[in-house]
Amino acid sequence: MNSSTMSWRMLRRAGERSVITCRGIMPGLQLPNPPPSSFAVRSVMRANRARDTGPERRLRAALREAGLGGYRLNWRQAPGRPDIAYPGRKVAIFVHGCFWHHCARCHPSLPKQNTAFWARKFELNRERDCRKRKALEDCGWYVFETWECDVRLHLDYVVDQIARVTRPRGRRARVREA
Known about the structure:
Helix content is 42%, strand content 15%. With 178 residues, it is of the alpha+beta class.
């Protein structure tokens, strides 16, 4: 048994989640969920998705329309498992939800129940985002972090910024016909 397998098992026994990087395993922390305040809250929270969210789908559709297909979704071989990855160009895209990652421009409010839990949860989400970004950058990846509000309000600008890095030189963008 090699050391990476052994450390993975030790992390699993300790009850921690981990992030696999190009240099090994990076431990993270998973908070135990508090009991839901009502059945309705429980149902709403269980319906939240970790991947294939509305903003991700909108961005992916816009990328395909701009001729930027060929990406991988939640690609496990990339450190931090980005939402959208262009492995050949080493470009990773994370689409952050304004509530879950606490967008600095939107300033979403904390839930009224279990405020201490939610404050810590959002802090840990931001720390995890930093770890993922650093792990990718250390492996030579170019990282885009776009927010739900940017996808909603400035989708063309977001796609243009991604296109500048992912599109091969000398290739023009497709022109949309009305």
